[in-house]
Amino acid sequence: MGESGIERLPEGCIAHAISLTSPREACCSCAVSTAFRSAAASDTVWSRFLPDDLDSLLARAVDPVQCSSSSSKRDLFFSLCNPILIDGGKMSFSLDRSTGAKCYMLSARELFVVWGDTPCYWRWYSLPESRFSEVAELIDVCWLEVRGKIETKMLSQNTFYAAYLVFKLSDRCSGLGYPPQEASVKLGVFSLINRVCLQPSDMQAHLHARRNRGRGRFGRYERWRSVFAHPEAKEAEDDAKEFGGVYPRERTDGWMEVQLGQFYNDKGEDGEVSMSFLEVKGGHWKHGLIIEGIEIRPKN
């Protein structure tokens, strides 16, 4: 089979065209032909996918990022897809594998936690599975309030982002289902408020009890037992629709996450993004929440 017209272009021209796409599309282009495979692996392509302020970011790293003279820009890019600790270990930085956009996680120590320094309300300790040296565990509070912020100039421009609370629940957690928590993301004049629920089973029990008032105690018990024995049952779907908020999901690193909100970072000139997670209206006690941090990453 003869070469197509584009195959006769200099490799530099093909590399420049690929560099105008994305890391995902650059990897896919390797399957086109040998010429494309060679061009797609060039430093011309992957230099464009690395952030302009990479040197200053690497200077903030807790542990030096190893970049040998023989390493390619492609190797460097994919090494940075794994989070590195920066700013004394209070924050992590990585690149999104598909888009090359910057991702950050603010550690629990980098957040504002109401009564966080009061031992009878919160305790701080290390967990082997956490990327940070400390996590925060909620002992007992009736006023739950966690806030974080990040400067927009640190983020990638022209990128749609989402913020997530990264957490776990202890075996004895309670009070984190109903009433639901309130999450918000604010950027300039734009503000988005969501209802979230960290303990779906507690929320489901509340909704079932409300739906079945007057049916008798035995009837309520049977209905609860049915839902917990068959979590994919239609009743559980009805509960999610009735709640109308956001439930958490499990991450690949073993933690849970719940989306606090989303925003569009235009030119990075809007100052800072403020994120919050709170439940201050119920007046009841809550415990068992373990916070690793808040992650800001592209909304793919």
TrEMBL record:
Transmembrane segments: none annotated. InterPro entries: F-box-like_dom_sf (IPR036047), PP2-like (IPR025886). Signal peptide: none annotated. This is F-box protein PP2-B12. It comes from Canna indica.
